[in-house]
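Reminder to self: tokens first, then the designed residues, so the page reads top to bottom the way the pipeline ran.
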């Protein structure tokens, strides 16, 4: 097992002082250490993984130094375009060290959305001709591996990837941030909104804690899950899944339960929703300013005026709530407001330690929803 501080210092010996990426649960201890020991200019939590590669390329162009981009392997898809058409040796030949969390590693039990990604991680990198090694798990071997990777990148100008297995890094807790003044927890907000919906309404919930909390709410009140599409993967795309549903099931009200990190990841989706202007679309963003399910790394959610952005993207109604009483009143009014509706709910960071996971498979979830839509 490698301590985050030793890994960070080993990179520093190679002249590394710039990091960008999207947090991952397998990298959360390292990401927390980087957050605590780098300034905001030199550690940028990107909107998405492809954007992180772009930031890294710009950094290299300005400094000539090699940057680090980190991600979960589920984010590799977002990087394919810039890795093949920007950093590749046949285009601009820009070196980047990729740190990739290996969710769904073959032989290791994981959630359904990670299984295929785990199987194809190494073949995908091989197909892109990116030199790849699995990160060593002993500190005695780390310096040699890092030195080998940097020698390769300095010699060829090409990216190099280190694949990180579960449990590779020892524990490191992100420094305690100032106590939140927000009174609502995300789980309470999810329950309040879900509890106010009609039995005919559809919910598309984003990946991470929100889908888990919605699932547990339905279980607690003995409701079925046929009205919910639990988007367990494909971060950032729940709003477009919901839009596709709303446009083609216009007899139903469709609610998207989104997160701030997911909304920021593909924010252009807001403009498409506003342009299509469905009259049955309700975009609920639970904003806690954090990537909560992968270690609590900060987003820029609280720095943005999300309702203002939605308004300029063409949403008919935009609202922002940060307390229980206001949310209860708003939930009652939601079905009667001009649509599309954008509702930001500011909530506290954090989740219950005993929060469960959906017990229905993704295929079963899809089938039940499609059957429900035929009624």
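Designed residues (375 positions):
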């Amino acid at each position: 097992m490698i301590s985050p501080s030793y890994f960070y210092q080993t990179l520093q010996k190679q002249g590394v002082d710039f990091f960008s990426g999207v947090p991952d649960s397998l990298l959360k201890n390292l990401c927390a250490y980087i957050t605590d020991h780098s300034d905001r200019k030199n550690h940028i939590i990107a909107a998405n993984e492809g954007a992180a590669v772009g930031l890294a390329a710009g950094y290299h162009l300005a400094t000539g130094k090699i940057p680090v981009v980190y991600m979960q392997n589920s984010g590799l898809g977002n990087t394919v375009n810039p890795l093949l058409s920007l950093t590749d040796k046949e285009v601009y030949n820009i070196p980047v060290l990729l740190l990739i969390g290996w969710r769904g590693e073959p032989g290791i039990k994981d959630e359904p959305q990670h299984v295929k990604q785990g199987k194809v991680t190494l073949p995908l990198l091989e197909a892109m001709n990116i030199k790849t090694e699995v990160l060593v798990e002993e500190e005695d071997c780390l310096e040699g591996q890092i030195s080998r990777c940097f020698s390769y990148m300095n010699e060829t100008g090409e990216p190099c990837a280190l694949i990180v297995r579960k449990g590779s890094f020892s524990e490191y807790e992100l420094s305690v941030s100032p106590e939140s003044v927000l009174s609502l927890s995300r789980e309470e907000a999810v329950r309040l909104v879900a509890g106010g919906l009609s039995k005919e309404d559809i919910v598309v919930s984003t990946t991470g804690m929100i889908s888990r909390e919605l699932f547990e709410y339905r279980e607690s009140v003995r409701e079925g899950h046929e009205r919910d599409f639990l988007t367990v993967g494909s971060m950032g795309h729940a709003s477009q899944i919901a839009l596709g549903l709303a446009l083609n099931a216009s007899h139903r009200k469709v609610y998207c339960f989104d997160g701030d990190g997911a909304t920021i990841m593909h924010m252009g989706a807001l403009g498409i929703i506003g342009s299509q202007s469905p009259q049955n679309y309700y975009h609920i963003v639970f904003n806690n300013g954090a990537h909560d399910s992968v270690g609590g790394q900060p987003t820029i959610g609280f720095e943005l005026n999300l309702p203002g952005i939605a308004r300029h993207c063409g949403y008919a109604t935009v609202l922002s709530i940060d307390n229980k009483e206001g949310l209860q009143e708003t939930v009652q009014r939601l079905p009667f407001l001009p649509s599309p509706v954008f509702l930001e709910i500011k909530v506290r960071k954090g989740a219950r330690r005993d929060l469960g996971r959906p017990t229905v498979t993704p295929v079963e979830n899809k089938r039940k929803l499609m059957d429900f839509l035929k009624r």
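The chain is about 40% helix and 15% strand.
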